[in-house]
Predict the 3D structure of the following.
Amino acid sequence: MPLLHALILGFVQGMTEFLPVSSSGHLAIVPWLFGWDDFGANNALENAFDVALHLGTLIGAIVYLRSDIARYSKAAVSWMRSSESPSGDSRIAIFLALTVIPTGLIGAAALSFTKDLGDRIWLVGSCLIVFGFVLWIADQRKATREIQELTFGHALLLGAVQGLAFQPGVSRSGVTISAFRFLGISRVEAARLTFLMSLPVIAGAGLVKAFEVEIPSGWWLPFLIGMSAAAISGWLSVHWLIRLVSRTSFQGVTIYRVLAGVFVLLLLASGVR
């Protein structure tokens, strides 16, 4: 694998993992668009590289969200040592933990049917368009609730919605932020909670694939470059999105998603790719 390819794919993974534009969709489209075939038919090697990129992204996000992670972890431990009903931070910690259950079940079911959900580029492009509009419609909602007002039933619903993102083009952050916005949660809070919800999912997905990881001796440098690029760009994407949603809507993101999806479908229809 050329080092430039590793750098670009790492940057794409990190930037798009948390921006609501679908990282898996972009990782499917970029090699397809440029005709890269870095892994050939070696699915195990491709999975290993994917694990490295997700690990890098996870590290970047954990570094940025470390104060929130420490806060809710401490609250959860304190609650487990007490006999009181969960409230405040401990309730939010349980809420976030519950979202992992349906997401994990949907992910396991999806992987049992196919190992490559991104091989149908037409579906990736279509999902970019459709869920871009979903995000735009959801973002028209006004903030009417605080996170403490959501129930544990809402947590399971949000986890199920997050599971839709196993299909490339949907976007984990995009579909989850949309669900939070439909429930009346503010943009900033929706984005922050979405990032926290995604961390165990990213870690779990990487852990599942880690058992298949075998890195040939000549691939260590591309792996390290890709992982480092994903970590740095992952940190930046969390930072930029939180700044973005505090100032403006997701209209620009919707426009980008629709244009990207239309571009992909036009290339397919024209036979160029």
User: Anything to note?
Assistant: Residues 3-35+44-270 form one domain.
